[in-house]
Design brief:
This protein is 28% helix and 24% strand. By secondary structure, it is an alpha+beta fold. A hairpin with a 4-residue loop joins strand 9 and strand 10. It is globular.
Length: 786
């Protein structure tokens, strides 16, 4: 063994270990996987939003060359209902969700039959031979109309389209606060449906071992551990006979935080045929069948004094569930419920969410999951209040936000923010943005009646992330915990394996976890490997979503590594004939205080442990360790985003002239990874503001079902970003870290829309519905002028 001086890894902008494989094509996506005797699945989907299945005949498909089997929903009726793990109220209406429709289809894209063939194209071609007779039923599309008496029902046996009503009322009664307010405003904001677009489509491969009744399922999933549990429940396969592997996963953004019917169908078909099977969605198929995000109507009322002090906020929310409640569908808007008060102090908060069934693709988590919707609403209405009071929007926020000296601070919504400095982030952002200079230019252009108007948008935000602690999730009726697991294996040669329960899909966990472990253990970064995404190799975990990986999973790695050092200290003390208290540990070396020449590296201790020739009495021959973390609190990143746009009032075209964001994500493990997360989040938030929308026609057909119709912005459509950070370490974990994965998405959408409305406000425009396309902006200007 050689002595090595190890510099600190945490805080270094390390290139990602993962990237070498990714950019050279040496990855192992689910669709790359091939096993002997592999069969391919294709799924026939309903072309109708709502209909009874009167007859279905798969026999013509069986006559096609290369077709091995074909099944209807009735043939696979032994499958259980797909799970909903978040029944948010005791009386929630929770209909069964068959993985493949049996009697009735409830959205365009609902599976009705499956073909099994020797290759993918034969299976897809055979779908056209299947005969299905449908009896059309009325679609249910409008959220308010769906709740009206006598409305057509998505689930006729339930007698209502209302899934649940979830209230949160804290502080003073809002009606009382309204009476003493000097200013009240009411606004309605609509969040369009968004379709997640991960670079890798969904895919699943199931390989059965008939002799032992075991199944290995490969899936492009964010949640291998949760998927294993849920599929065991749905299919009846014993959990210990089911292994789930998430190989390389090409993005998720929440869309792969799901237990999909296709995974259950693939397991059932493999079970029936005794052969391995594969299903991979096409992009257009994914637009129909992968769950959607957002889809909400927000009615807000805000009460304040004439000098701008907030008194209260009332939120009535209608949330589109789609046709079924999927894994966490009902809980998504509930996460947002705690975020509407944002960084502001007030006396009253009154929130009510109503979940509504429609005959559309189910909704579920999409980057930010409820938090972007809440931030959008409060930041939009804060700008409206500032305009009403003839006050600078930054000044209005400054008068109401929580001061840095007030932390920890318990908000009106009941969350305890542990740390933050909104003043510092805002001040830094305004300086970089040259806020005052832009305001002066804006005033000059408005005075000249310029046809191209300058608008300035402000968005200050915080978010709750790091989904935990478990006892809070229990109180919210969430079926799982919020803990996370990690283990450190010290190999005899001194190399290190980190086993993590998190399951990355682009976030750089392998790099960051290596940095954390290397720092604690004092070993080279290159000597650390990370094992993840396999329920047999990493048997414990709660997986990856909600910006929880670092604040929960990374902290578990940190604790496990310290346990390794603690165990190694006992053996080093024995070998050096010293007491544990007399040992220093730095840069991977144990040394005796006052006798620096008496030393053992942690790698040497690992080898001595392996030989176990000279261990302390009663000491097991291992310094491996594991740790499970269940945090005491969420983590609360925050920041300020500023956007300047130029809006052509004659064409409606919006151009983002400059964008500055200053985010505070606590202590930073790898600045390069943080920067990438922020850039990606900004792209998705700006996309909601300007480009993306899932549109249905009056019959419930998705008319934006391809990338030709649904505009996903490219780099050419996005501006340059100026990104900076302030740092207030979290006090809820020893690393001081906070989440970053969703921050850019949460803050950017209101910044852009506020800027557009700010540009057009002198013309009488008070809102532009998202996405703010040139046509919608043009129409808003024309309507205001008329």
């Amino acid at each position: 063994m050689t002595d090595q001086t190890v510099t600190s890894e945490v805080g270094r902008a390390r290139p990602r270990k993962e990237d070498a494989r990714l950019i050279t094509g040496q990855t192992n996506w689910t669709d790359n996987i091939s096993v002997g005797g592999l069969l391919h699945l294709a799924i026939l989907r309903s072309p109708m939003a709502h209909a009874r299945i009167q007859r279905i005949d798969v026999s013509p498909a069986l006559e096609r060359p290369g077709v091995v089997a074909a099944f209807t929903g009735r043939d696979l009726d032994g499958l259980g209902s797909l799970p909903c793990a978040w029944p948010v109220t005791e009386d929630i209406v929770l209909p069964d969700h068959p993985p493949i429709a049996v009697d009735e289809v409830r959205y365009a894209g609902d599976p009705v039959a499956v073909v099994v063939a020797r290759d993918r194209y034969t299976a897809a071609d055979a779908l056209e031979a299947i005969e299905v007779d449908y009896e059309p039923l009325p679609p249910v599309l409008d959220l308010e109309a769906a709740l009206a008496e006598g409305a057509p029902l998505v689930h006729s046996d339930k007698g209502t389209n209302r899934s649940y009503v979830w209230p949160l009322k804290t502080g003073e009664d809002f009606a009382t606060v309204r009476q003493r307010a000097e200013v009240t405003l009411k606004r309605r904001y609509v969040h369009q449906r968004l379709i997640p677009n991960a670079m890798e489509p969904r895919a699943v491969v199931v390989s059965p071992l008939a002799a032992s009744g075991e199944y290995t399922l490969y899936s492009a999933t964010q949640i291998p551990h949760i998927l294993r549990i849920m599929l065991a429940v749905v299919t009846g396969i014993p959990e210990h006979k089911l292994r789930v592997i998430a190989p390389d996963v090409g993005g998720g953004f929440g869309s792969k935080l799901q237990v999909y019917g296709e995974e259950a169908i693939a397991l059932a078909v493999a079970r029936r045929t005794g052969r391995p099977v594969k299903w991979t969605e096409s992009r257009s198929e994914g637009y129909l069948a992968t769950h959607h995000g957002r889809g909400m109507i927000q009615d807000l009322e805000i009460a304040a004094t004439r000098d701008g002090r907030l008194l209260g906020l009332k939120v009535d929310l209608l949330a589109d569930m789609g046709a079924y409640l999927m894994l966490v569908t009902p809980g998504i808007p509930i996460l947002g419920a705690f975020m509407y008060p944002a960084i502001y102090k007030m006396d009253s908060y009154d929130f009510t969410c109503t979940g509504v069934f429609t005959t559309r693709t189910p909704t579920d988590a999409y980057r930010g999951a409820g938090r972007p919707e809440a931030t959008y609403a409060i930041e939009r209405i804060m700008d409206e209040l500032a305009a009403e009071l003839d006050m600078d929007p930054v000044e209005l926020r400054r008068r109401n936000w929580i001061g840095h000296e007030e932390f920890p601070y318990t908000t009106i919504a009941g969350l305890t923010y542990d740390s933050g400095n909104y003043e510092a982030a805002t001040g830094k952002a305004m300086a970089l943005f040259e806020y005052d200079k832009l305001r002066a230019e804006q005033a000059d252009r408005n005075a000249r009646g310029d046809t191209v108007r300058l608008g300035i948008g402000v968005s200050t935000y915080t978010e709750m992330c790091g989904l935990a602690p478990s006892r809070v999730l229990r109180d919210l009726r969430y079926a799982a915990g919020g803990w996370e697991a990690a283990a450190i294996r010290m190999l005899p040669t001194g190399k290190v394996e980190v086993v993590t329960g998190t399951s990355p899909h682009g976030q750089g966990h392998v790099t960051s976890w290596s940095q954390i472990a290397a720092d604690v253990l004092g070993v080279p970064f290159e000597d650390v490997e990370v094992v993840h995404g396999d329920t047999k190799a990493a048997p414990q975990g709660m997986d990856t979503y909600g910006s929880r990986s670092l604040a929960v999973g990374g902290v578990a790695v940190h604790h496990a590594a310290h346990k390794v050092v603690s165990k190694a200290r006992k053996i080093a003390a024995h070998l050096l004939e010293a007491s544990e208290q007399d040992l220093d540990f730095a840069d991977g070396v144990f040394s005796v205080k006052g006798s620096p020449e008496a030393r053992k590296t942690i790698q040497e201790v690992a080898f001595e442990t392996f030989t176990s020739h000279d261990l302390p009495d009663g000491m097991e021959p291992t310094i491996n360790a594991e740790h499970l973390v269940d945090p005491d609190n969420f983590s609360y990143p925050h920041g300020t985003h500023l956007c300047a746009v130029e809006v052509d009032t004659e064409t409606g075209r919006t151009h983002i002239r400059s964008y500055v964001c200053v985010d505070d994500v606590g202590r930073v493990i790898n600045p390069m990874i943080v920067e990438g997360q922020v850039h990606g989040g900004l792209a998705q938030g700006i996309a909601q503001a300007l480009y993306e929308e899932a549109v249905y026609d009056d019959e419930g057909n998705l008319v934006t079902g391809t990338m030709a119709d649904y505009l996903v912005p490219s780099a050419a459509d996005l501006p340059d970003f100026v990104t900076e950070r302030t740092q207030t370490p979290a006090t809820s974990n020893p690393l001081g870290v906070k989440g970053v994965g969703e921050a850019g998405t949460i803050a950017s959408t209101p910044a852009v829309v506020n800027a557009i409305v700010d540009a057009l406000r002198p013309l009488g425009v008070h809102d532009v519905r998202m996405p703010c396309t040139p046509e919608r902006v043009w129409r808003a200007v024309r309507e205001a002028r008329s």
